Amino acid sequence: PCRSVLTVACEQTEVLLFDPISSKHIKTLSEAHEDCVNNIRFLDNRLFATCSDDTTIALWDLRKLNTKVCTLHGHTSWVKNIEYDTNTRLLVTSGFDGNVIIWDTNRCTEDGCPHKKFFHTRFLMRMRLTPDCSKMLISTSSGYLLILHDLDLNKSLEVGSYPILRARRTTSNSDITSSGSSGPRAVGSPGHQNDSGPLTEKHMSRSSQREGGSPRNSLEVLTPEVPGERDRGNCITSLQLHPKGWATLLRCSSNTDDQEWTCVYEFQEGTPVRPASPRCSLQLTHCIEEANVGRGYIKELCFSPDGRMISSPHGFGIRLLGFDAHCSELVDCLPKKASPLKEIRSLYSHNDVVLTTKFSPTHCQIASGCLSGRVSLYQPKF
C-alpha cells in the first residue's frame, strides 16, 4: 500500500525487498520461513504478512525487519493465499489442507493471533476476497469455483450450515453431484469435509435466511465454462478479482496439461426470486489460449489497477491483454457471447518460464518473476 517497496516471495525460504523505481535491492530476509515462501500481503503502510510451505504465516514490520512481529500456527499443510479485510482487520488465509482460517489481528501479540477455521473444502487451490469483501471465491484443482455471497467473516461455517444457492456449470442446467474421485486433479464435487452426498438445496438453513434476500454466507458452486474443456475437465490454478469487483480472472489448465486458458467472467448481480431458486453468478465474457510452456507450474496473472488490462505469464515473458484493442473498460465492451482477449503488447526478458506478474498500483510499471529466480521490471510505452 505504501507503493515504495516491491516484495518478492522466493522458493528457498527468502523474501526480497526492492525499490521499484530505482530497482535497488533493499534487503533480503534470508530465513523468512523454513520452506518456500508463497504469498505476501500488505496490511497497511508498514505491516505485511507472508505464508509458506512450512504451514505458517509470519507478520513483519517494515521498520524492524530483523525479526518477525509474530508467527501464526493453524494450518496443517502448505499455506498458499493471504487476504485481508481492512474494515474488520481480519486476516484470511488458505492452504492445501483445504482450510480457510480467520486471524484476528486486532488482538495480535508476539505469541500470535486468535484464530478459527472458517471453511473447508477438498482440493482447494486459491482463495480471494472481492474488493468490498462482500464475497469470497475459492478455486479447486477439480475445476470447481465456490462463491460465498454476502460474506460474514465473523461466522464460522460448519458442514451443512451454509445454504446452497446452486451447484452447476455456468452454461448448463445440470446440477453437480458427488463423484468417487480421489486424485487431486479428478473432476468431482468439492467434497466438503464429512459430506455424504450431493450438494443440494436440502442444506438450506431456513433460520439463516434474512427477510427480503439471500442469507449470509450463501454458497454457490460452479464449474466455469472453459473453451475446449467441456468433456475433459480442468484445474483452476490462478484466481484474481477485478479491482472494481466487476469480474473474476481465472487461469485454467486441462487435466492432461495439454491446454491452458486465461478467462474473464463477469459477475451477474441480483438476488434470486426465492433464496433456493437457481442462480448463476458468472458469465464467460473473454478468453484466450495460453502458450502452455512450463506444464505443471502455476502461473499467477493480474489485472491492472484500473482493470482495463491483464498481465499474463506467456512462456519466457508476459502478454498485456485487453478487452478490446483500445483498452476499454470491461463494462463498455461486453460481448453477446465469449470473445477473444486482445493482445496489446508482449514483453520478453527472461530465460526461463515466467510464473508471476504484477502491476504497480501507482506507476506505469510491471514486475515479472521466472522459475530461475530472475525478477524483471518493465515500463511499457503505448
UniProtKB/TrEMBL annotation:
<feature type="repeat" description="WD">
    <location>
        <begin position="30"/>
        <end position="63"/>
    </location>
</feature>
<dbReference type="InterPro" id="IPR039085">
    <property type="entry name" value="DCA10"/>
</dbReference>
<feature type="compositionally biased region" description="Low complexity">
    <location>
        <begin position="171"/>
        <end position="182"/>
    </location>
</feature>
<dbReference type="GO" id="GO:0080008">
    <property type="term" value="C:Cul4-RING E3 ubiquitin ligase complex"/>
</dbReference>
<feature type="compositionally biased region" description="Polar residues">
    <location>
        <begin position="206"/>
        <end position="217"/>
    </location>
</feature>
<keyword id="KW-0677">Repeat</keyword>
<dbReference type="Pfam" id="PF00400">
    <property type="entry name" value="WD40"/>
</dbReference>
<feature type="region of interest" description="Disordered">
    <location>
        <begin position="171"/>
        <end position="229"/>
    </location>
</feature>
<comment type="pathway">
    <text>Protein modification; protein ubiquitination.</text>
</comment>
<comment type="similarity">
    <text>Belongs to the WD repeat DCAF10 family.</text>
</comment>
<protein>
    <recommendedName>
        <fullName>DDB1- and CUL4-associated factor 10</fullName>
    </recommendedName>
</protein>
<dbReference type="InterPro" id="IPR015943">
    <property type="entry name" value="WD40/YVTN_repeat-like_dom_sf"/>
</dbReference>
<dbReference type="InterPro" id="IPR036322">
    <property type="entry name" value="WD40_repeat_dom_sf"/>
</dbReference>
<feature type="repeat" description="WD">
    <location>
        <begin position="72"/>
        <end position="104"/>
    </location>
</feature>
<dbReference type="InterPro" id="IPR001680">
    <property type="entry name" value="WD40_rpt"/>
</dbReference>
<keyword id="KW-0833">Ubl conjugation pathway</keyword>
<comment type="function">
    <text>May function as a substrate receptor for CUL4-DDB1 E3 ubiquitin-protein ligase complex.</text>
</comment>
<keyword id="KW-0853">WD repeat</keyword>
